[in-house]
Design brief:
This protein has two domains: 118 residues, no CATH class; 183 residues, no CATH class. The protein has seven helices and 19 strands. Bound molecules: zinc ion. Zinc ion binds next to loops.
Length: 315
């Protein structure tokens, strides 16, 4: 393992710390006000602060200034780091606070070569729509959603999918019209095991623009390409128990603005209207009691549908 004593390019080594332990994301601010992302926090910080910003960390002695040392722990089989321990020491009483960041990708050397990244505007707000949806594993909700997106909002659907039960299953991506997509989703056996993302767009965009790479088991799309395009994306999620019924924890994401080089870029008014229409439709058709950004199937125990849904077994 290796230790790095954390210093900025102008040799500041004392920081105010804002850190979210659950997300492993945080920033350091020097006494003269320069702010730096910790490790790769820049990839996640802005999404996180749209809902909540971590408070300035305080020592039990009430001081809020810390020095920092990062401890890099290597994997046993190769040179990548499997985790980084962040050690913060109170500049008044020397008491330590430690956080562990697990790293699940490769290569990782840049986290050692550049442990901090300058952040010009740490508190930029942009319009992100991130919805959580507990939907039935019997696929009725997703079919209703596809019908609304294709037939009412008149959007094109790009579908990226593969059968997650099959080893070496080919990852495919293509435009699907509403009927073809509904047929695919109506195959209940296939639907239960499919990995699925559906990207809806008002313009027929070239799919090649979103492909990161091809290999012998198919196509990988670029990470979060929907951010920079006028796209509303749905990702089929894991199975979870909700009110005693197995559901899929799906997510729907889009943004009306995005951050590029520390500035906010606006998407079109037309796209803004599409996202507003979708939110209105979701609010009218789903249960929002968990939060205003949660659109769950309505589970009323007196409704015969509840019994039908409750009888759906986890595949
Ligand atoms: Zn202290």
């Amino acid at each position: 393992m290796s230790f790095l004593s954390i210093k900025t390019p102008d040799n500041s080594s004392n920081f105010q710390v804002r850190y979210n332990k659950a997300e492993s994301v945080g920033i350091l601010t020097t006494p003269n006000g320069d702010t730096y992302f910790i490790l790769d926090s820049g990839d996640y910080w802005y999404d996180m602060i749209q809902t909540s910003t971590p408070k300035i960390m305080k020592c039990s002695c009430k001081n809020d200034l810390f020095s920092a040392q990062f401890e890099y722990i290597k994997r046993t089989d190769h040179d990548d780091f499997k985790s980084v321990k962040l050690h913060f020491y109170c500049t008044k009483c020397s008491k330590e606070k430690t956080f562990k960041v697990d790293i699940k990708y490769s290569p990782t050397i840049q986290l050692f070569n550049e442990p901090l990244k300058l952040c010009m505007k740490p508190f930029l707000k942009y319009k992100l729509n991130h919805y959580n949806c507990f939907w039935d594993i019997g696929n009725e909700a997703v079919i209703k959603y596809v019908d609304y997106m294709c037939n009412t909002l008149k959007l094109y659907a790009i579908c990226w999918f593969w059968d997650s039960n099959e080893k070496e299953s080919i990852r495919k991506v293509d435009y699907f019209d509403c009927n073809k997509l509904t047929d695919l989703l109506s195959d209940a056996t296939f639907y239960k095991s499919v990995f699925l993302e559906i990207h809806f767009t008002a313009e027929k965009l070239p799919i090649n623009d979103f492909i990161e790479t091809h290999d012998n088991i198919g196509v990988y799309l670029k990470h979060d390409f929907w951010r920079y395009q006028e796209i509303i994306t749905l990702r089929k999620g894991a199975y979870m128990l909700y009110k005693g019924v197995w559901c899929e924890a799906n997510t729907i994401k889009s943004c009306n603005e995005y951050i590029l080089n520390d500035d906010i870029v606006q998407k079109s008014q037309k796209f803004n209207e599409l996202t507003l229409s979708l939110k209105k439709w979701l609010t009218e058709n789903f249960d929002t009691t968990r939060s205003e950004n949660c659109f769950d199937i309505k589970l009323d125990p007196t409704d015969p549908t509840y019994t039908k849904l409750g009888s759906l077994k986890l595949p």
